[in-house]
């Protein structure tokens, strides 16, 4: 006589459910401690200011000037990296040359180099007496300790985001498609515009968005290479630190909330771009 399978004991089902949910519990707990609680503390501190005071601090002339320097300069730096970062990724993927591995590894230098060291190096090289700054000084162009120097620092620290985002996409592209376009009579420009750029564009835009977000939050290098003068080259992260030095915790948190809001918007944009890129996965 064949025996029918019996149901599992309730205790085994509970143990199985506990094993399944354990990774979720660890994930939620870790994210809560590392992300949610600090953000909640920031929002709670900013809420101590009434709406009128919050708006007054967030839209003060110094804050608006800092937003302009921070976001506009970051956008220009990210756009420049979008062009030259894509070119660097193209060369690293499509060409073989001496010291290729060394140059490929050097792209990640801004990730490993402390930002304060990067700022000190940029301020030294681009000063009026530096190797590069001395070439522009006779023309009346000052780079270090100006807004231009802030832009150079932002370009330096955000370049790897574009290169490392575009490089894998270029590596996965089949060159046969380009050769087929050439055989059909397409020029190199037409091949790039119609065949290469469409699947590559989401990765480029994602790298630009990541570089922009990184440049917005940069502090260590820009605080050294800039003069940090209001209405000149003062950026928002430095303004937050100055408010903290003045024991103006409410003002610092209000500006921090503004930067947090912009960062969340950029995160949403990055997710949209990544979803857009899935159209070319097939």
Describe this structure in words.
With 282 residues, this protein is mainly α. The protein has helices spanning 10-46, 51-58, 61-94, 100-106, 109-112, 115-125, 133-136, 147-172, 175-183, 188-216, 222-225, 236-245, 249-277. Helix content is 75%, strand content 0%. The chain starts with 9 loop residues before the first helix and ends in a 5-residue tail after the last helix.
What's the arrangement of secondary structure elements?
Layout: H1 10-46, H2 51-58, H3 61-94, H4 100-106, H5 109-112, H6 115-125, H7 133-136, H8 147-172, H9 175-183, H10 188-216, H11 222-225, H12 236-245, H13 249-277
Helix pairs in contact: 1-13, 3-8, 3-10, 6-8, 8-10, 9-10, 10-13, 12-13
Name the descriptors.
282 residues; 13 helices; single chain; mainly alpha
């Amino acid at each position: 006589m064949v025996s029918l399978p019996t149901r599992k004991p309730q205790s085994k089902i509970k143990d199985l459910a506990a094993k399944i949910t354990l990774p979720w519990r660890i994930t939620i707990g870790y994210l809560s401690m590392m992300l949610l609680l600090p953000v909640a503390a920031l929002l709670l501190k900013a809420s101590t200011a009434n709406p009128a005071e919050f708006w007054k601090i967030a839209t003060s002339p110094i804050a608006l000037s800092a937003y302009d320097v921070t976001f506009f300069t970051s956008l220009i730096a990210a756009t420049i990296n979008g062009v030259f970062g894509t070119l660097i990724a193209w060369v690293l993927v499509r060409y073989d040359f001496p010291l290729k591995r060394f140059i490929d590894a050097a792209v990640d230098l801004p990730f490993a180099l402390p930002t304060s060291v990067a700022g000190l190096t940029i301020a030294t090289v681009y000063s009026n007496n530096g190797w590069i700054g001395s070439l522009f000084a006779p023309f009346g162009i000052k780079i270090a300790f100006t807004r231009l120097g802030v832009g150079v620092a932002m370009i330096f620290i955000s370049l790897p985001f574009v290169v490392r985002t575009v490089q894998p996409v270029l590596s996965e592209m089949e060159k046969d498609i380009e050769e087929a376009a050439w055989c059909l009579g397409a020029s190199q420009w037409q091949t790039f515009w119609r065949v290469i750029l469409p699947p590559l564009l989401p990765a480029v835009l994602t790298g630009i968005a990541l570089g922009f977000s990184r440049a917005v939050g940069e502090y260590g290098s820009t605080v050294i290479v800039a003069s940090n003068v209001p209405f000149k080259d003062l950026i928002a992260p430095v303004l937050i630190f100055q408010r903290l030095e003045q024991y103006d915790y409410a003002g610092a948190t209000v500006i921090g909330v503004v930067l947090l809001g912009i960062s969340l918007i950029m995160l949403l944009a990055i997710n949209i771009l990544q979803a857009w890129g899935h159209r070319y996965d097939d």
